[in-house]
Structure formats: structure tokens, C-alpha cells
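Milestone 3.1: sequence recovery, worked example.
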């Protein structure tokens, strides 16, 4: 059963939602049947690639026309919610920058089977460690920590590889009605929007899984018999 998650690395609720979902998945009896796929989304695609903000407060103040104090107050509730989910958000040191290349790195990681690990590494680097996830040297180091090869990451970042995949994800989000993130889609039949409590995710997992099992029953194979050998050493 495929679960697709549209999110942006610069979205604090996406980080929180990931941990809420994972808490639900750990309690879900059918978790071995789940295949998770991260989808790209950009909250601020027009942010110039050569523009960075050294903290969230100045970014919110400039982009939304708010006083710094008000921008700081906006983050207090979010940080508290994150702490409850086991996530540390350091808005005073979060470097806000364009996430396009980070999304390309994530696509590369997914094809190599380490997408979920890469997503967590990117979130932690951005929100907890205060790293610039638009910086290519930083992305190479983060990719290596997920098990990717330095040369392959560098070659990818120096090309436009996976750019089409990122753009396709963003367009697909519009097509299915995702206007904000995180947006979780369960087997293209059920959706959960936002950093919902883990109970909401668990309920949706169970509902989607029941539907999936009905549509994908375990049918016995139509077997054509022949001579075989078994682990007990008998052959006939």
C-alpha cells in the first residue's frame, strides 16, 4: 500500500507531521505492507537561490511585512508543538533559503532506497542544526551521511537531474487539490492534511489498509507441480 507525502523541508508542520505519522506507523499492524514515497512541494518557490535569511524571524518579517517581535511570537506555539512530538525547532538559527536542490537530492536518495532517512536528515539540518540546505557543499555532506556517494551527489547538483521530478510533484499536488503541506495520500483513496495527531494517522492507515486488502487479496497460486527438493533434504 503506497502512501505519498507532499511536503517542503522548510515547513515546520511537515517535520512535526512526519513524526506524528511515524508514531502511528509504529503502532500499525500492517506496516510491513506500507511503501512510503516523499513528494516535493515548495512553500516559497520564488525565493531567489542566491538569497538566504539567517533566521526565521527576519524571513517572516520581510516576506509577510511583520514586526520582528510578532514574527517571533508566531513561532512559539509551533516550537512547543514540535517539542511534544520529539522535534527540536530552533527558529532563531534556521537558515531560510530556496529548497529546490534539497528536493532534487531527496529524489536521488529515494531511488537508492534511503529516502526516509534523507528526509529526516534534511529536516534536522534545517530546523535543528541551522544549516543552509541550499548550499551545495552542505547538501553533499548531508547526502553522504545518508549513504550516498559524494561524486554522484556532486554530479547531480551540477546538472538539472531530478528537476523534472520536483516540478512534476509540485504540479501533481495542484492536480489533487493539495494547497498546503504536509499532505498525506493513502493509496490514492484517502488523504490527511496537516500535522494531525498520530491517532488520526493510525485511523486512516487502518481504513486504507482494509480497502487495500480487499482490492489485493492473497490468492493461492495456480501451481503446476514437478520434481522438487525441500529444506529437509527430501527430493521427489
Amino acid at each position: 500500500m503506497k502512501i505519498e507525502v507532499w511536503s517542503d523541508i522548510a515547513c515546520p508542520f511537515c517535520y512535526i507531521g512526519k513524526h506524528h505519522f511515524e508514531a502511528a506507523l509504529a503502532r500499525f499492524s500492517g506496516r510491513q505492507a506500507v511503501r512510503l514515497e516523499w513528494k516535493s512541494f515548495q512553500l516559497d518557490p520564488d525565493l531567489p537561490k542566491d538569497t538566504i535569511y539567517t533566521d526565521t524571524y527576519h524571513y517572516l518579517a520581510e516576506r509577510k511585512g511583520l514586526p520582528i517581535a510578532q514574527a517571533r511570537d508566531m513561532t512559539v506555539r509551533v516550537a512547543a508543538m514540535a517539542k511534544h512530538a520529539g522535534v527540536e525547532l530552533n527558529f532563531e538559527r534556521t537558515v531560510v533559503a530556496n529548497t529546490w536542490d534539497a528536493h532534487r537530492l531527496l529524489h536521488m536518495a529515494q531511488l537508492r532506497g534511503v529516502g526516509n532517512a534523507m528526509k529526516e536528515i534534511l529536516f534536522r539540518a534545517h530546523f535543528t542544526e541551522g544549516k543552509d540546505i541550499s548550499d551545495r557543499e552542505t547538501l553533499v555532506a548531508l547526502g553522504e551521511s545518508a549513504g550516498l556517494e559524494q561524486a554522484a551527489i556532486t554530479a547531480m547538483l551540477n546538472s538539472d537531474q531530478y528537476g523534472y521530478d520536483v516540478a512534476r510533484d509540485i504540479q501533481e499536488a495542484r492536480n489533487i487539490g493539495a494547497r498546503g503541506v504536509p499532505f498525506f495520500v493513502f493509496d490514492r483513496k484517502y488523504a490527511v492534511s496537516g500535522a494531525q495527531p498520530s491517532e488520526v494517522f493510525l485511523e486512516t492507515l487502518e481504513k486504507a489498509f482494509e480497502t487495500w486488502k480487499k482490492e489485493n487479496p492473497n490468492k493461492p497460486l495456480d501451481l503446476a507441480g514437478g520434481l522438487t527438493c525441500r529444506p529437509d533434504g527430501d527430493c521427489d
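The CA atoms of residues 101 and 135 lie 9 Å apart. The mean pLDDT is 94.
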